[in-house]
Write a structure and sequence with these properties.
15 helices, 422 residues, alpha/beta
């Protein structure tokens, strides 16, 4: 459980301010003076510090400088509250290292800060870290911090070993020192990650280096690192930078997933959930190329619901939609493997059947025709006509579809509810 230390001379103010933390399930210890606050910091462990500008025995900025001098306030947010906003006072507080300042009368800003801080502090991370660090002391320190955050860690001493592991493992973030055992440096690790294909090439990279120079940082960032930490590493800084990089990664993953969903929705028919004609046009060049290259058959089946306009006119569009959904479900039930089924438009469906001969497609179409005729969707008698064509040597999609469509026309002209091969 997170714990806050609150320092204010007024019991009433302590109670009011403490409620902001308690509402976020943060335990609160209270002190009424700077001296009492310093003692509490020396005796306990806290995750956040909140104190007033006026503490009675000293001012808030003086208290915080003294806490820093005694090494009691490092690694935690420090918030100062003032009765009235004063830019000079707030600027002095920021210069002293205080995280943020808030007017006491406007608790909304404090509440928003505490809410966001608590959410981030309690956020449990997950994922697999690639740690490249040749120093056992530094590696053990980083591993302890990372595992404490909920992360799994694989550590390597050399760039060569780490790079080899990229093909085997699914990492969520890379943390690499600059100077390593072996011939290669951290720059080699960074370049290897960025050279990966797909999402692996977009892994967040946090670089470590004991040489803190502008030129070194620029080299590392130019190579493709997302962030940089100077050694010796501070636990709180490492945790914060890892959290930020992982959060950004998750946001990008969510955006990518949403993008894929939008793309998929654009290729789906909203009524039947089948793919639409755009999906067929995207898939057919590949299927036709494979059929020609392998010398295997590829058969196209065009299906049209008979007298569908009459169904809509006599029974209404809602029942017509029910018929479309029912027929789509029957067709969906037979699709296997590389086969492609789409609602081509209106009452027309298309099946692309790789590796299927005209005879095989005809037998399957007869079974489908019988199923549709026996289904009586939404209590209505429904039949369908089928046109079949098999790919010829050197043929492209347009003439193949034209032949299947012409066979469908023959089926309709011949009385409907039948299968015709072209």
């Amino acid at each position: 459980m997170l714990k806050a230390l609150l320092i204010d001379p007024s019991r009433f103010q302590r109670s009011v301010i403490a409620s902001v933390f308690v509402r976020r399930n943060v335990e609160v210890d209270m002190a009424e003076s700077a001296a009492a606050g310093l003692k509490a910091l020396a005796d306990g462990r806290y995750d956040i510090l909140c104190f007033s500008l006026e503490l009675g025995d000293m001012r808030g900025t003086e208290f915080y400088r003294e806490a820093q001098k005694r090494r009691l306030a490092g690694g935690m947010p420090a918030l100062m509250l003032a009765a009235t906003p004063d830019k000079k006072v707030f600027d002095d507080a920021i210069a002293a290292g205080i995280t943020d300042c808030f007017p006491k009368a406007e608790r909304e800003d404090l509440e928003r800060y505490v809410e966001q801080w608590e959410r981030r502090a309690n956020r449990r991370m997950s994922g697999h870290v690639l740690l490249v660090e040749d120093s056992d002391t530094a590696a053990n320190f980083c591993i302890e911090v990372m595992q404490g955050l909920g992360l799994k860690v694989s550590r390597f001493r050399t760039a060569e070993e780490a790079i080899a592991s990229l093909a085997r493992e699914d990492y969520k973030i890379v943390v690499t020192d600059f100077v390593l055992e072996g011939l290669q440096t951290g720059l080699s690790v960074i370049r290897a990650v960025r050279g990966q294909s797909g999402r692996k090439g977009e892994l967040p990279i946090l670089a470590l280096s004991s040489i803190d120079s502008v030129a070194r940082r620029v080299d590392i960032l130019r190579a493709g690192a997302n962030d940089f930490v100077t050694k010796p590493v501070v636990a709180e800084e490492l945790a914060a930078r890892l959290g930020n990089l992982l959060m950004l990664r998750e946001l990008f993953d969510q955006l990518a997933a949403q993008h894929e969903l939008v793309k998929e929705m654009a290729l789906r028919d909203g009524l039947t959930s089948l793919h639409n004609r755009h999906h067929l046009m995207a898939e057919m060049p590949r299927l036709i190329d494979e059929a020609h290259r392998k010398g295997e058959p590829l058969t196209l089946v065009v299906i049209d619901i008979d007298h569908f306009k009459k169904i809509n006119d006599q029974h209404g569009h809602s029942r017509g939609d029910a018929v479309l959904v029912a027929v789509a479900d029957i067709l969906r039930g037979i699709v296997r493997g590389q086969q492609v089924l789409v609602r081509y438009g209106g009452e027309e469906f298309v099946l692309a059947l790789p590796g299927t001969t005209t005879l095989q497609a005809g037998l399957g179409a007869e079974r489908l025709r019988e199923k549709i005729a026996a289904a009586n969707p939404d209590g209505l008698p429904v039949t369908a006509s089928f046109g079949i064509a098999t790919l010829k040597a050197g043929e492209t999609f347009d003439p193949l579809f034209s032949r299947a469509d012409a066979a469908l026309y023959e089926a309709k002209r011949g009385g409907r509810n039948q299968v015709v091969s072209g």
